[in-house]
């Protein structure tokens, strides 16, 4: 069984008690942090010592997915200089934009390794695979398979019907629903609940969480749009909620 805890789901910038993107994935004795947005380190500290994270996966280099990485480095540096035994934490990340990655790569407390859509990471019985999303910079959805259970986090993406295949049969699917039909623009970099319903139904996934919610959009607008589409099993994220993800059913 995997556990996925929501540490942050705000899109773009944090608000009070609402960090930007961050998810703690736990299985076996592994703790993997997926994205490290603003406020995520604080939320993570409620459940574990951050230096015990085994690996970090960054889906892309937008600030709302990486901005706590700098202070995470300070945490490791300060503890090390105070005599704590600190191991380097591997970070898996997209290679572009190179100028942003280069700024962080000077931090000696992390080991950076790039991945792309062809990469597969096998760790202790789990398999991580990646799908390049439609977004202004290089960005990936992350799929984790472990003991017949599948978790997918789409990270940021414009509407992409091809995602239905990548997320197929997910037991837990966390998506970027940072757009609304009522605020549709010519060019969108996020996806609406209406578009997610179509992808979700095609994919055969079990549970879907509409995440990456924009702070100044009314939550009730997201709920109203999603609810108007008929019955489907969508949920809204909550900070600190932990999902148990296992094959067949979830709690
Ligand atoms: Zn983004």
Say how many strands there are.
15
What is the mean pLDDT? 95
- CATH C-level category: Alpha Beta
What is the radius of gyration computed over CA atoms, rounded to a whole number of angstroms? 17 Å
CATH topology annotation: Metallo-beta-lactamase, Chain A
Largest sheet: 8 strands, mixed
CATH architecture: 4-Layer Sandwich
For CATH, the homologous superfamily is named as Ribonuclease Z/Hydroxyacylglutathione hydrolase-like
Taken together, the total number of domains comes to 1
Percent range of helical residues? 10-25%
- Give the CA-CA distance, first to last residue: 11 Å
Shape: globular
Q: What order do the helices and strands follow?
A: EEEHEHHEHEEEEEHEHEHEEE
What do these coordinates show?
The protein has 251 residues and is an alpha/beta fold. The chain has 7 helices and 15 strands. The longest helix is centred in the first third of the chain and has 13 residues, at 69-81. The protein has one domain (2-250): Ribonuclease Z/Hydroxyacylglutathione hydrolase-like (Metallo-beta-lactamase, Chain A), CATH 3.60.15.10. The mean pLDDT is 95. It has an 8-stranded mixed β-sheet. Helix 4 links the parallel strand 5 (89-93) and strand 6. The structure holds zinc ion. The site of zinc ion has 4 residues, from loops.
